[in-house]
From TrEMBL:
Residues 536-749 form the Histidine kinase domain. Pfam families: GAF (PF01590), HATPase_c (PF02518), HisKA (PF00512), PAS_2 (PF08446), PHY (PF00360). The lineage of its organism: Bacteria, Bacillati, Cyanobacteriota, Cyanophyceae, Chroococcidiopsidales. This is histidine kinase. InterPro entries: GAF (IPR003018), GAF-like_dom_sf (IPR029016), HATPase_C_sf (IPR036890), HATPase_dom (IPR003594), His_kinase_dom (IPR005467), HisK_dim/P_dom (IPR003661), HisK_dim/P_sf (IPR036097), PAS-like_dom_sf (IPR035965).
Amino acid sequence: MSENLQVTDVEFSLWDEEPVQLINQIQSHGVILVLEEPNLKILQVSTNAFSVFGISPEELVLQNLEDLLDSYQIERIKLGLAEENFDLLNPIKIWLRLKGDDYVVFDGIFHRNRDKFLILELEPALTQENIPFLSFYHLARASINRLATTTKLQDFGQVIVQEVRKVTGFDRVMLYKFDNDGHGVVIAEEKLDDMEAYLGLHFPESDIPKPARKLFCSNWIRIIPNAHAKPVELFPLINPTNLRPLDLTHSTLRSASSCHLKYLHNMEVGASLTISLIKEDKLWGLIACHHRSPKYVSYELRKACEFLGRMIFAEISAIEETDDYDYNLHITYVRSQLVEYMSQAENWIDGLVKQEPNLLELVDAQGAAIYFNNEWTTIGQVPKQENLNVILQWLRYQFRDEEVFYTDTLPLVFPEAEIYKHVASGLLAIPIADKSYILWFRPEVIQTVNWGGNPHEAFEFGRENDSVYLSPRKSFQLWQETVQGKSLPWKKVEIKAAIDLRKATIEIVLRQAEELSQIAYDLERSNAELKKFAYVASHDLQEPLNQVANYVQLLEMRYQEQLDEDAKEFISYAVSGVSLMQTLIDDVLAYSKVDRQNVEFQPVDLEVALKRALSGLQGRISETGATISYDPLPTVLADSTQMLQLFQNLIGNAIKFRSDKPPMIHIGVSPLEDAWLFSVKDNGIGIDPQFSDRIFVIFQRLHTRDEYSGTGMGLAICQKVVECHRGDIWVASELGQGATFYFTIPAGGKKYEYRHGRKTQNHFPSRG
């Protein structure tokens, strides 16, 4: 291309969408008549009609078909048209008498186009008789006998090209299969020895543009007997009935586009025959026949080749389906197992990643990631979490309404993926909720692709009469390309399996959500009733206990002189028991009140809360000679009373469970990503690590009341206070080495994530 020529993407797009079927030109080897029913009036005719009929096109459009043919032929044609099945009619032999006693025989081919116009195409008949059924039979029988000797796809393809070449006599016959990306590859070839081989070569998608592919799906057989012949126009050029160009989608005579003809010229092709191979209403591939010189193949023989190709292709399809059958069975088994695992697991994600088979085996992936409830769960080789987050945002923005997304060239469609293409050049993704996804990944597979010419120079550009035009490349020699950033392609059965898993997962997630919602509701109601009972019962027990205490003390005062030592001891036991019961009731009341207070959290200066707690403990501090120090404490969103209670209980325990040395207690604090980590460290008797969880259970004690007083409620209250503030509490200790109690409070009151009931921070102090 010269430096001053510029071709835009818009011009490429226009070429790719060129309406070839509306060119209004036909190939010169035949004649076309556009007829109006029911009287078969001629509306349009090709301009080469004069050389055939000896009548000018202008005169022909004023006549009916019966003006050209005898009544016998007209009657046969009308009877055939009445059947509405043109396959039974075509081809019909038509005799046209010329001047004198001479006549010419045509193969007449009828069809109706999308505008419901009846079109008659006349091609020269090579024989005056139709090919008999036995010819078709023997042709098919010979091919079937050859197919019985092989079960390989490549061998089947070779049978097709050999049989078609034997029947037609073309110099080259190829079986051309389309890839998932739209490019094509020659998988079988039969040719003259001196011709350049195309077997195994890939050809870019642009070689057969979208309009041509649509036509191949609509018109399954296509002949160009002379690629160098000049096309013939219609007269009149525009259909006089609807004032539009004539739709020639199903025409056998329709002229090829100038670009396709140049393509054939550049390949040194003088004639071509193309047979479409359709699978599941999509263009699977083509049987492409090329001849160096002009070559005409009759309509009947073309139909015979089409029949042969479709018959053998049916066997190819069966082979493909057989090859996929075992894999399909495996995928079906894996999917059913995964659904069963999910249904039985408490957490459906565990059912996908913690069993065998797992999520990877469903689609033969090397890595997978599940995003649910703002948390990633991964298996196999996947990008880093920060990269997963970016992929997720891209998917949500680009494909929010899709039930599945897949690509084997992720770096091409999402350039940010270039840095992790070694693990994620292929991506298959399904949404399972508004913001939740399952992603599968395949690594890059570097491969060398053999092309028929440079695919990046599929077109050449030129200028003619101050206009730029596109022309296909002139070279089809081997051109190798190393392809990177591409994974193995996702198979249809794998994509379907992912969609099926999505449906099952959504059902299970919804069901588990409903079950959890019901359980949460039942627990909430039960807890509310228990808390109410504990509060009311504890409150109502105060009065009778007070009466017992008062009357026992009154009994002791009034009859003191009459009581012996045993009686006084018994009364002392009763008073102590009542006192203990009152302490227990007070603790139960305090425990039940922790989350009954529907108070909005307010900014609380923890140094103020700590000083108030120390003030309440001043007597015990002075009595034991305790030394208490603390770091500068932050302000947090909390309940001030509960913070006071928390510090009071933890420091009080540190004083109570002291060693023979005076208590030394330090309150520390350090920032985390989204929370504050507090510690209360002492030099007391310590705790056996095996009891580090038990001590937070209500009424649990590690010592007798004779050793240490108390009800076993203090740490349970501390845990409840911390949990009500969405934090966590634990202890790190060894016997005889003191103890350090840790607890967290979210910074600014923010909620953060937990895993299995504990915060997921890899820099937390040991929990013993």
